[in-house]
Amino acid sequence: MAGAPRAYVEAAERWGYLAEGQAHKYGVANGATLLLKIASGESSFNMKAVSSAGARGATQFIPTTRQSYISQYGVDPWKSPDEAIHATALFLKHQGLAAYNPGGGQGYIDYILGQPVGAKGGARTAPSPSSQQPSASSSSPEGAQGALRHIGLVATLVLGGAALIGLGVTRVFGSARGQVA
Fold this sequence. Notes:
It contains nine helices and no strands.
């Protein structure tokens, strides 16, 4: 994706599933895209950004909110792109985009939604009991990729494979789907 550094794209792919509800609410393709739009609009992907209100980092957390996220989730949004995106995804899941910039109203939401970033095909999503995985017997490439992702996810969950969790199931299997543009 033009303009988004790789570290942010990878973080958005990893944590995008947490922002899926907000993405759908605002007509954004997926959670990864919404997270990238926020980082773009808040700081142009600049971890060193500081606002006049004291908000810092790529996704502009104020000190009190930052401390709360460190205490509650062990995530420091000022530390790295991955933690900034992770904290933002948690914020969106629990409080929503409308609460992200208090006082910003619809103008802020429109500004974020208008950011020129997006995702190809969506981010990796958390598994749900009702989700249907493509059959391993499918002859289509998508079915085979889905089966491989499903096998990788099961292996990760069963074995607790730290390497797979750290890299992400879709990165391990090199899926073309789930890559952010």
